[in-house]
Every structure is written in C-alpha cells, then in structure tokens.
Amino acid sequence: MICAQANLNDYKYIVVPKRFEDFKKVNQYQTSTLVKYLFSENGFNAVYDDELPPDLMSDKCLGLWASLNEDSSMFTTKISVVLKDCGGAEVFVTQQGKSKVKEYKGAYHESIREAMESFNAFQYAYSGKKEVKEPLTLNFKNDVKSLKDKQISEKLEPKGINTDKVERKSPKNENPMVIQEATTENQSYKSMEPVTSDVGSKKDNNVKTNAEIWYAQEISNGYQLVDNTPKVRMKLFKSSNDNVYMAQADGKSGMVYEKEGEWIFEYYENGSLVQEELNIKF
Questions:
Q1: Contact 147, 156 (CB under 8 A)
Q2: pLDDT tens digits, residue range 64-81?
Q3: Which top-rank group of organisms is this from (predicted)?
Q4: Domain boundaries, given as residue ranges, for the chain
Q5: What gap in Å lies between CA 25 and CA 91, rounded to an integer?
Q6: How confident is the model at residue 90 (pLDDT cuts 50, 70, 90)?
Q7: I need a surface site. Which of 66, 139, 171, 254 has the fewest CB within 10 A?
Q8: Regarding the domain delimited by 2-119, which CATH topology (the fold level of the hierarchy) does it fall under?
Q9: CB 261 within 8 A of CB 254
Q10: Computed over its alpha carbons, how large is the radius of gyration of the chain?
C-alpha cells in the first residue's frame, strides 16, 4: 500500500473515458460520471478523456488512464478499477467490487463504489516527479539538434516568455476542481471545472437554457435534483426507457430525456410545448 501511494503521487491527473470499453453508449449507466466523481472525492485531479488540460495534452505521461475490469457472473456483477500509465502498463488495480442487484445501473454503481473504497486510505498529493524538464530540442527539417547547454537554450528562448517558470508556479495557483460537502445535514457538490461556451454552437432557438447546475441524488424510484444550497428543484421518476424520466418541478409536469448529450425538460405551458435544457450532474 505504501508503494502504491508513492506511485500514484507521481501522477498529476486521472483520465476517465466518457465511454468505457465494454459499453456501447457514452456514459452508459452514468458510470463515467460516477468514477470521475469518486476520484475527485478522494482528492485526485480527475478529467475526462476529451477535456484534457494543455500540459496533459503535450505530455500524456502526466496522467493515469482509468478503465473498468469486469468479471461478472450470471448473478453477480464484479468490477475492478484499473489505472494504467501512458505506456499501457498497470500502475494500480483496486479491490474487486461486487453487487447482486439485478438492475444494471444499480449493480454497476454498487460494485464501482465498493471497488473505489481501495482509495479511501490514500492521502493523495502530487509530487511533481513526472514534470522533469527535458533538454530543448529543435527540429530543422530532418536535422535534429539537442541543445543541452543552458546558456545557448536561454539565448534561443523568446524574450518575455519562460514556460518552465510558469509551469513551476502554476500548481500554487491551481484551484480545486470540486468543492463538496456530504454530511447527514448538508449535501452539496460544486464543480469548479470550466464550462464550455455555447457561442457559435447550433442550438434550437426554441429551447430554453437553464445554466444553473443541478445535482442528481438517487431516490427509490428515480432521482431528485438539488441546487448547491442544497434545495430540491425537480424530481425525476423512472420510465420503461433508459435516460427518459417523468418529471415534476415548480408545479410543472413533463418529461426529461437525453438528446445529443444534453438533458431536455419538455412540458406544456399555456397550451404551448416548451423545451428547456438542463445542466444535470449525475
């Protein structure tokens, strides 16, 4: 366990795929959002595989890449979470989480949560060991010249720009990606991740947009959506179709469904059909 702790501290990011290999759909059964949330809850800097920060884009070895190892039988779902480095070598494998729940989503959630308990005893703190400055290499067509002499490389560096100094300072200024409280009295989850701009995107002008983030909490027959105060803003009730829910909110009744990666609340108001885009975190 001590060795595993040291190894994990060498990596700056945990990369979670939007679609795990064994699934047909993006975020099927909300597995990707659950794994990313649980890593963040344990202090790791978790990011999605299509939202890599600039330093990870340029150096994939700063991150560990998460995957699910399923060894399920007819009556039991068995899941382990595997972390691999940029070369595909396994760095850490969790304990095997198990569930006998018959419903797929409930089974995956229970087994993943049990598997992720392997990280509960960790006190993650990034050591910065992977950010070792390499000698400056310039490529002039087919002639590659390595400049190891610090004085020469400084002369070639553009004036006013020192990316090495900026990189060393950045960890001090980093803000936590997630601020959360989970107690019996209070439950809140606030994401500090940048929100993608809608400027230039092709959206239906008839669809209203609700920019406020609502967080999904499981109830016996679906979910309740709460804001960050936290206050219950909407209730979703399961239907016979995946990702389609009957919804109630502020005296309005309708349906909430997923369309092209967005959640839409559809209801009638004054005889007119209204579509409202919701920002839901499962």
A1: yes
A2: 999 999 988 888 999 999
A3: Bacteria
A4: 2-119, 205-281
A5: 27
A6: very high
A7: 139
A8: Rossmann fold (3.40.50)
A9: no
A10: 23
